Structure formats: structure tokens, C-alpha cells
Amino acid sequence: MTLIKSISGIRGTIGGGVGDNLTPIDAVKFASAYGSFLKGNSDKERLSVVIGRDARISGEMIHNLVMYTLVGLGIDVIDLGLSTTPTVEIAVPLEKADGGIILTASHNPKQWNALKLLNNKGEFLDAKAGEQIISIAQKEDYDFAQVDFLGKITVKADYMDKHITEVLKLKLVDLESIKARKFKVVVDGVNSSGGIVIPALLEKMGVEVIKLHCEPTGHFAHNPEPLKEHLQDICEMVVKEKADFGIVVDPDVDRLAFISEDGQMFGEEYTLVAVADYVLSKTPGNTVSNLSSSRALRDVTLDRNGQYNASAVGEVNVVELMKQTSAVIGGEGNGGIIYPESHYGRDSLIGVALFLTHLSKMDKTVSQLRDSYPQYFMSKNKIELTPALNVDMILEQIAQNYSNQQVSLVDGVKIDFAESWVHLRKSNTEPIIRIYTEAKSQNKADELAQRMIQELSVIAGI
Q1: In the sheet that 308-311 helps form, which strands lie side by side, from edge to edge?
Q2: Which of 8, 106, 193, 379 is catalytic?
Q3: Is pLDDT of 290 > 70?
Q4: Quick check: is 106 catalytic?
């Protein structure tokens, strides 16, 4: 069982002992620290925080614990109930709130949950703020409100509908063009809130929807990370239903993957590539993704006369570099689309609407669209960590072994070869080393990954 405290929040498995897992005590402790941080950095008499959750089984329990902790601190709560990460992100500024909390462990399995923390712009907290909150939690430095000054809870259960309205108002979303194409799409909502909001968005755009795993029970029908090995059901259904394509989201709806009409993966990496291609065709400019993302975005950006930059992994790092470089589109290779015209957060609803607009203006199938982009293939692997492993030493040794290549130490170790690359880094959300490789063929990407796994194992003595 695991509890991970980081600058982006607290994430852990439900059950077990305090301090080693995400128990009710730990949830209250970290919510207290976040609320105390907000109070300590504001001169307002009354603060408010937006809270929403995904559908995972522990969600309602953690939701209530966090809400009433903030009430105890004298902070008003705007309760969105079942929601998505991007929905909470857009709700914070719309409600003029002082912060937001999304209760989700994103792509982690059902035994996990987390508190993801936002600032008053609806963006993830930076490193400095995260460190302050961790410090407050460690010191248990809380000052709860007297009885006459307790916070209040206001329920606003219609925010996913408001989110859809905000997406459809975007200038680059061509609703009439989409409706004219009469698309048929299969949606895998992985038994969470995406099973509600994505079909609702599609229906507003005149799309025929075939639902798969769209009941928000929290009992995920498959591993919730939208990778090929978990998505056989939808791949088969897209072909069976003769659909134009399929859509898969993770439990909190900030990762987006497509299935082509032939039942093959469009590729998480190419979600951002395709959407960026469309955005750049209408609003030329710069792009950003993280170091673990495909070179294809760089190629498409250069073809559109823009500048591409790579950040450290993590949404907050991508957003920071997007602001610095005035990027018009950005995100992460895991299917996360960040479109500043709306907000600085990964948003699958925006990704779906822009992708559909892009496709509606082309005389191509989804597989033909995928084939029109630079062809790269990725392999995503991981090695489980044990407390005895010195990860920094292991990564330093790898960097030394390849000092004759182009090596970046911005985030773990990334080694760029002429026609391939490998990125090794310690995960912020799981006790693992992630190993991402990319090459001109799947075999070469897989071979590079296996070579790196073997080298890591030798260095680590495992």
C-alpha cells in the first residue's frame, strides 16, 4: 500500500495504516493543510473552494471528508459532485473561487484516490506552493474556525453541462461542420464521469453515440489507463458498429485517446499532434509538450512555421513553458490537450471538439488522417522501485554511459539518438521508473526499451 506526497497533491491507496496509505486521517490532514495555506496567503475574510470528484468507489467518502474539513476551517465549498478535472478547472475562475480540489487518482486503478490542488486561476499549484502545503501538513499547523464562522456548502451539480457550453463557444469549434458529417462514435467512459460528459458533448454536436462502460459505478471495466493493451473491447466495437472512430478517456477526463475506424489505435501521442495541426492551421504559433512526448508534434509545428519547446514532465511544467513561449496549443503525449484559449489545463472535451472539427473539414478517415502525420512509434514501460534502490545514482550512471549522445537532465535522463530517443524518469505518482522510447518502427522502439530495461537492471542489481 502506498501514500505519495508531492507538490501536486497527495495520492495513495485506500485502507491500511495512517501515514502509509490514503486513510480518512490523511485526507483530513492534507485538506486542512491546503485550506490553511489558502487562508495564510489571503487577506479576504471569506474564502471559497470548488470541489469535484470522479466516480471511483472511495470518491464519496473522500469528498465528504475534504468538504467538511474546509467547512471546519471557515471556508465555503462549491460542491460540483461527480465531475471531471477540467470541469473543476474552469469552474474555479467562473465562480471567482480561491482554489479548487479534484478528488481523483486519474489513470490509477480503483484502489487509489488523490487530492489534486488548484490555485485561484483553476491551474495546478506550483512547486513553491506545494512545498508550503506539505510543510503545513507535517507541522499540523491548523487553526479551525469558531462555531459562528464555519463555512457553508453550495451544491452546483450542473457544471459538466456548463463545461460543454464553454467548449462549444470556442471559435475553432465548428458545430455546423460537425453536424453535417453525421459522425458515429463509440465512447468508452471507463465507468466514470467521462461516461456522462463525453456522450453529452457528442450529442450536442449531432454525433450518434454508442456507449461502452459509461455507467459511473467506479468499478472500472478494465485498467483505467487508456493504453492499447486495455482497450480490446472498444477496438472490436468500433469495427462491429461500423463507427467513424472511438473515444477513450481516463476516469477524470484529462487524457484522451482515439480508435481508428479499422479498430487500430490512433495513438495517444497523436491526439495532441492532430489537434495541434488543426489549431496551428487556423492560429499559427508555438507549441509545447513534455520530454516524454513524440517528436511528431515538433515536426508538425515546424511545418506550420512555429517553434516547438519541450518541458519537464508534469502539467504545471508544460503550462509554465507554454506561458513563457506564448504557445497556442500544448499538452502531454498521454493524450492531454491544453488549449489556452479556454484554460490552462488538460481537457478531453476540448480535444474531442477540436478533433471532430478537424476531421469534419477533411475527406479522410481517421486512419488516413493518422497516416498523414510523421510516423513514429513509442514503447512505454516501467520498472517497480524498492526502498533500497538509489534511483538518482542509477540514472546518473545511465547518463554517463551515453555521454557521447545528446543527453538532457532537465527531468530524469533523456537520450536523443539520430532516429530515436529514450526518456528515463522516476514517476511523481507511482513508485516506478518510467521508460519511454520512440523510434521509426515499433520493433526498434521496443528493442531500445528492452535494452534500457536490461541496462537499468544490471546497474541496480535486480
Answers
A1: 308-311, 286-290, 327-332, 336-338
A2: 106
A3: yes
A4: yes
